[in-house]
From TrEMBL:
<feature type="domain" description="Aminoglycoside phosphotransferase">
    <location>
        <begin position="142"/>
        <end position="303"/>
    </location>
</feature>
<dbReference type="Pfam" id="PF01636">
    <property type="entry name" value="APH"/>
</dbReference>
<dbReference type="InterPro" id="IPR002575">
    <property type="entry name" value="Aminoglycoside_PTrfase"/>
</dbReference>
<dbReference type="InterPro" id="IPR011009">
    <property type="entry name" value="Kinase-like_dom_sf"/>
</dbReference>
<protein>
    <recommendedName>
        <fullName>Aminoglycoside phosphotransferase domain-containing protein</fullName>
    </recommendedName>
</protein>
Length: 376
């Protein structure tokens, strides 16, 4: 998908039908003027030109890397002083009628129109995530997710179903689902204020993992491994060395022992958790969630994902050994050290297969391969 077509699709899917777009913002009302912040894949952010309307939503965003954070703070400073539109590559446009049309397609039920602050996600599948700001209070109210291309529709529906289940099982653990259009695969959930969680595992992360245990339900690693083998065999033109390694280790972790099942978040990382006033966390972005999976999966992911994007050696066993509450979690679920080692290999194998399947970055394939080899 080209950059221009991605922008066109994002605009047509986010803004209500009947909105007329113009590349001359002076033709429309001030609250209908927008800026596009691009990256190397196309449009990254679509924001209101007025910082009065978009600033609060944008300041909730906190990039992981220090270098990205510095650049983001510079952009915010330019936006705050109405200078962002003068920077190179920033695109201006007008959305005529957007403040007069209904936004019910994104779950907005107020009589007055919201102002969207949109991030376009293109990491694996294309989707738009629109934070709807109430212009009366200038505060974010709703986060709507809109599919554009790929598997994003399925993932949005998966998250919506998961949020519905979590509201019954563990209220407060995740945002509240407000709206779902199953036919169009559009969902809306409450906006959650707060900062990202601690980048180091702490007791609260283990408490969250414990709350995700599925009481009375069990799984076997052997059954999960069968799923990995099937997925591996469906991948076309898979790297020969990677396949040889996986074929070597998967039989070793196909254990028949019944172990407690837990709900897997799927992307259990600091930037997907917002701190609450009582010291806990609300977990966001449940698109990759699985109803029943193996213990420790999300905790492994918390450590490995950060190591992978930093291209650093994970040393997961050493790190987990330093957490005295790791043994509490193991005892709570009845996980032996032998099973723990197989759970760790299962996690790494599943991540390697996923990256092979979705044409992930070569550096990620190398990273997970090295981590597997270090454990053999």
């Amino acid at each position: 998908m080209t950059s221009s077509s991605l922008l066109k699709d994002a605009l047509s899917n986010v803004f209500p039908a009947g909105t007329e777009f113009t590349w001359n913002p002076a033709e429309v009302e001030p609250d209908e003027r927008y800026l596009v912040i691009p990256n190397n894949r196309g449009p990254r952010w679509i924001i209101p030109k007025s910082p009065r309307l978009g600033l609060l939503a944008l300041t909730q965003w906190n990039p992981y890397f220090i270098s990205q954070r510095v650049m983001w703070l510079a952009l915010i400073a330019a936006y705050r002083t109405n200078m962002l539109g003068f920077l190179p590559k920033i695109i201006s446009f007008g959305a005529s009628g957007a403040t007069r049309l209904g936004w019910g397609h994104l779950g907005w039920s107020e009589s007055h129109a919201p102002i969207p602050v949109v991030i376009v996600r293109t990491e694996f599948d294309h989707k738009a995530v629109a934070t709807l700001v109430d212009p009366a209070t200038q505060k974010p109210r709703i986060v709507a997710k809109i599919p554009i291309e790929g598997n994003s529709a399925r993932m949005i529906l998966n998250e919506a179903d998961t949020l519905t289940q979590l509201a019954e099982e563990t209220p407060g653990l995740a945002p509240r689902l407000i709206f779902l259009d199953r036919e169009q695969s559009i969902s809306a959930q409450e906006f959650v204020y707060g900062r990202s969680s601690n980048h180091k595992l702490d007791r609260e992360h283990f408490r969250l993992a414990t709350k995700l245990a599925r009481e009375g339900r069990h799984i076997k690693l052997s059954d999960l491994v069968e799923g990995l083998v099937s997925r591996l065999n469906r991948i076309d033109n898979v790297d020969r060395n990677s396949k040889k390694l996986l074929e070597k280790i998967l039989p070793k972790i196909a254990d028949q022992t019944r172990i407690p099942a837990v709900r897997i978040h799927g992307d259990f990382v600091p930037w997907n958790m917002h701190s609450t006033k009582d010291g806990g966390y609300v977990i966001l972005d449940w698109e990759d969630s699985v109803p029943e999976g193996p213990p420790f999966y999300d905790l492994f992911h918390f450590l490995f994902k950060q190591a992978a994007i930093s291209n650093a050696k994970a040393d997961i066993c050493d790190k987990l050994a330093g957490y005295y509450f790791k043994s509490d979690y193991s005892k709570h679920l009845g996980i032996s050290e032998a099973i723990f080692s197989k759970l760790l290999l299962y996690y790494l194998a599943s991540r390697l297969i996923k990256n092979l399947d979705v044409n992930g970055s070569r550096s990620r394939v190398i990273f997970y391969t090295k981590e597997i080899l270090s454990l053999l």
